[in-house]
Amino acid sequence: MVSQFFYADMDEFLKYQDKLVAEEDVSGYKFSGEVTQMPKQFNEWVKANEKRIKSAKSLPYFIRDNYVGGDISKGLKFQSVAQLTKTNVFTEATSMTEVVERLKRCGIKEIEIGDRDVILQHLTMKKLSKEFDFIYSYKRI
């Protein structure tokens, strides 16, 4: 299993999501809060406990499971981030009727729509916006 931690503010996340929806290449995309190193406190703890770790009869699970051969000096088992593969292609709705049918399949029973064009953009993910100039409501079945 490969993990990579990052922290993104909402604007940054929405820009990334827009690129995904537009099927743009995001392989080199970097979030401003990407975590690329172990925390300073962890590295200090490892240095302070180096002898204990080497002579331990039983290694802590986080060392055994994450480091090559359970040896911190050999580095992490996982050096790269797994590439995301596209498994689901979004198909844009061609009519308001199609949008309503999709919502019904998701369990939404009742829809009230104000500005048709704006809600179409929202539901087809053409445009994500913080403020909407329409009102819509829905009820679950």
Largest sheet: 2 strands, antiparallel
The total of helices stands at 6
Q: Roughly how many Å apart are the termini?
A: 38 Å
For the biggest β-sheet, the strand order reads 1-2
Summarize the amount of helix as a percent range. Answer: 25-40%
Textual characterization of the structure:
This protein has 141 residues and is mainly alpha-helical. The chain has two domains: 10-74, no CATH class; 96-140, no CATH class. It has helices at 10-21, 40-48, 50-55, 61-66, 96-105, 116-123; strands at 108-112, 137-140. A two-stranded antiparallel ribbon has the order 1-2. The radius of gyration is 24 Å and the shape is elongated.
Summarize this structure as a short list of keywords or feature phrases.
2 domains, disordered C terminus, 6 helices
Topology:
Layout: H1 10-21, H2 40-48, H3 50-55, H4 61-66, H5 96-105, E1 108-112, H6 116-123, E2 137-140
Antiparallel strand pairs: 1-2
Provide a concise account of the structure shown.
36% of the residues lie in helices and 6% in strands. The protein is mainly alpha-helical and 141 residues long.
